[in-house]
Amino acid sequence: MQQLLLDIQSTPLPTLVNFVPGRNTELLQALTNILSKLEKERFVYLWGGLGCGKSHLLHAMVDACTQKNLKAVYFSAKKHGKFSIDSDVDCIAIDDIDCLNASAQIELFNLYNQLRDEGNTFLLMSGVAAPMYLDMRQDLVTRLGWGLVYQVHELTEAEKIQAMKSHAADCGFDLPQEVCLYLLRHGRRDLPSLMMTLDALDRYSLVHQRQITIPLLRELLQVVS
């Protein structure tokens, strides 16, 4: 039984379609415009706190470019060794640049200058803070401010509840308001984790043939913890 509960469906791959924009509508439109070549700016920096959706958007842009038969690569600065990039790449996404060490910052600085001087490569980067507040090389920080800079706003509690209710409706079950509130108080609050928990809750309710309630959610959280 426990194995069945733990066999939760994988989180859907990040796309621009399944990104819940909330207050990030302008940002989402800008990225869409870049894909459609309606926006000429090729350098975009996103910043925001943990769980706000920065990584989702970087992965989504790489996926969207790939779907258009463009060459796109994703790098995580937390795991960065070296930016191995071919000259014909169309999109480069570099996540968490605030984690780059001194030598990697020089490498990114040189890459930025190279891309600005030649080609049409789109460079999308993310970090934890606005450029002026990053503890990084000043010349690199300056360049980050040359392109488009967007704060990625985390969804409000009301927006997360609406997203959960919409997800539940798409899966064919009704999600009570009190269950949403309990999950926000006692579970992980990032949207992918919330959706995974809802999928598990749906499966758990079907296995036990019980309605979705706070006691059922509490029981599930105890089983999978």
Verbal overview:
The chain is 48% helix and 11% strand. By secondary structure, the protein is an alpha/beta fold. The chain folds into two domains: 127 residues, P-loop containing nucleotide triphosphate hydrolases (Rossmann fold, 3-Layer(aba) Sandwich), CATH 3.40.50; 70 residues, Helicase, Ruva Protein, domain 3 (Orthogonal Bundle). It has a five-stranded parallel sheet, with helices on one face. β3, α4 and β4 form a beta-alpha-beta unit. α6 packs across α7 and α6 crosses α8. The two termini are 15 Å apart.
Compile the SSE list and pairings.
Blueprint: H1 2-6, H2 25-35, E1 43-47, H3 54-67, E2 72-76, E3 91-95, H4 102-117, E4 122-127, H5 138-144, E5 148-151, H6 157-171, H7 177-186, H8 191-208, H9 214-224
Parallel strand pairs: 1-4, 1-5, 2-3, 3-4
Which labels suit this protein?
225 residues, alpha/beta, Rossmann fold, Helicase, Ruva Protein, domain 3, five-stranded parallel beta sheet, 9 helices, elongated
